[in-house]
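Dear H.,

Thanks for agreeing to be a second pair of eyes. The structure we're designing against is below in token form, covering all 314 positions.
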């Protein structure tokens, strides 16, 4: 069942975080549903602009609709990840998405407010909710690049949230997208989250760039012919600490790509004469489902489904 993130965040706030997982194809979608249903967790499916240009948006919608029918027990939101204004309107008008992210974080503050406010008005009129971003993650977010972290300024959040009317806020606290997040120890600025939470208590926060980049996974990829050097991610034991500080949504994409890469590299290393795409495809679906199961346990979202259902009925 497709719900908005608003309801999911109300249930999760202060206790656990909901996994927001990007999908691009059928195999990811099926593994995602299997893993969430097995771990009895609510979840968020994220579709990026990149996903919408990799395959036709109609395929993505059709795959998700089919998964919803195949897994009637699943409770999830369908969310546009890092949207620009035009893509947000396309998703709002599609009647399929329940949530969009307008990422105007690279614009000057007042412009970020103006763009976000326009998207919020269109989205709310159609019953969708909006995630906005203040501050910038280091690295590339869709087509926007920032050379350094631009941390969220807690003194701006009340003004931003009030003026835009957004429903959740992505904060930049030192994570970045991709597999190369830290050169030494991870440096997450939970002090910023604490200050933000003080300013807007009860308001759902979002953490982007939260893949853990497991070293065992990277080692297996490299042992099977990969060359991923110096990759490092977020310590997943910190997820619950972030949840206590108001983070209700934790975005994970890169780790799933690493599962895909490991499965396929190992398969073709061990089966050099293989060419039936369905064999590694099936292995990936199972491995991805196991991966989602484990993430949901770390996020505290595993086992919440019955309680979420009761909450939605109220
Ligand atoms: O924020 C970035 C997400 O990992 C989506 O990545 O734009 O390559 O689909 P993508
Ligand atoms: P990762 O690259 O850490 O998986 O982050 C994903 C993300 O933030 C999607 O919006
Ligand atoms: Zn992101």
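And this is the sequence the design step returned. I haven't edited it by hand at all.
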């Amino acid at each position: 069942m497709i719900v908005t993130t608003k309801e999911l965040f109300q249930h999760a706030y202060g206790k656990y975080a909901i996994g927001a997982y990007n999908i691009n194809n059928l195999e990811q979608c099926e593994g995602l549903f299997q893993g969430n249903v097995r771990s009895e967790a609510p979840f968020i499916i994220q579709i990026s602009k990149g996903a919408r240009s990799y395959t036709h948006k109609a395929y993505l919608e059709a795959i998700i609709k089919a998964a919803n029918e195949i897994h009637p027990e699943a409770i999830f939101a369908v969310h546009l990840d890092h949207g620009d204004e035009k893509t947000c309107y396309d998703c709002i008008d599609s009647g399929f998405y329940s949530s969009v992210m307008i990422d105007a974080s690279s614009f000057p503050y007042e412009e970020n407010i103006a763009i976000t406010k326009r998207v919020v008005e269109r989205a709310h009129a159609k019953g969708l909710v909006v995630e906005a971003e203040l501050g910038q993650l280091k690295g590339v977010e869709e087509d926007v690049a920032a050379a350094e972290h631009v941390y969220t300024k807690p003194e701006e959040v009340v003004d931003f949230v009030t003026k835009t009317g957004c429903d959740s806020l992505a904060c930049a606290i030192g994570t970045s997208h991709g597999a190369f997040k830290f050169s030494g120890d991870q440096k997450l600025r939970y002090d910023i989250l604490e200050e933000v939470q003080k300013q807007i208590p009860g308001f759902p926060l979002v953490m982007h760039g939260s893949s853990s980049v497991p070293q065992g996974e990277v080692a297996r990829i490299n042992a099977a012919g990969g060359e991923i050097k110096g990759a490092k991610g977020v310590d997943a034991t910190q997820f619950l600490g972030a949840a206590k500080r108001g983070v209700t949504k934790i975005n994970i994409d890169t780790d799933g790509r690493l599962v895909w890469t490991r499965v396929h590299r190992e398969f073709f290393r061990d089966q050099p004469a293989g060419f039936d795409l369905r064999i590694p495809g099936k292995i990936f679906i199972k491995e991805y489902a196991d991966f989602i199961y484990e993430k949901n346990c770390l996020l505290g979202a595993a086992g919440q489904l019955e309680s979420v259902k009761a909450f939605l009925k109220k």
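Two observations from my side: The pocket of zinc ion (ligand 3) is lined by residues 82, 141, 177, 208-209, 251 (CB under 6 Å). The CA atoms of residues 120 and 165 lie 7 Å apart.

Warmly,
E.
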